[in-house]
Amino acid sequence: QITLKESGPTLVKPTQTLTLTCTFSGFSLSTREVGVGWVRQPPGKALEWLALIYWDDDKRYTPSLRSGLTITKDTSKSQVVLTMTNMDPVDTATYYCARCLGGGNSCYFDYWGQGTLVTVSS
Amino acid sequence: DIVMTQSPDSLAVSLGERATINCKSSQSVLYSSYNKNYLVWYQQKPGQPPRLLIYWASTRGSGVPDRFSGSGSGTDFTLTISSLQAEDVAVYYCQQYYNTPYTFGQGTKLEI
User: Which of A97, A118, B17, B61 shows the greatest Cβ crowding within 10 Å of its Cβ?
Assistant: First the structure.
């Protein structure tokens, strides 16, 4: 059974750094053509792809946020960590992590966590 | 970035009727070497995460009812629900995974 769960603060202040952890089970991030990514969704709005890390440690980011995002993995702990610097109220959203499955350097999200709502406010 | 545009933004369909949602990409998401379209459809119900429905544009995900089907190639894609059930009320998103950043459509809200 594949599960993913996001954890981290529910409230951060503007300019602070957000650190979110995705803890997963039922698969390994050392398996070829597997990745874990992050997607966010502001309240009432559409999904936005943020970042992805592949089994081989290849990392991809959305260009609009690239300078503020870092994604890392700890295969032994079955965890992926996303950090986002200089948080702003517009970054208020539900943040999801998801397993990415596919071929080559492309993949689609087949399993998702329940998401965690992060509010940015002073 | 590849821009994904869905139509319509919202749709009301009667129970048992067909629902059709369109998705257009600003450039082709067909990888000709593999003859595969890098296009996925998700369903999202209120308060829930997205659920995978269709990948490679036309392959149903595990456990997805066969009333859901995907079609299209290149830049134009369609999600069809052949006979709408009450539990299909949701927002539907298409997403391309041809190039990063992987981009989503704006969503289509399906109502009865």
Answer: A97
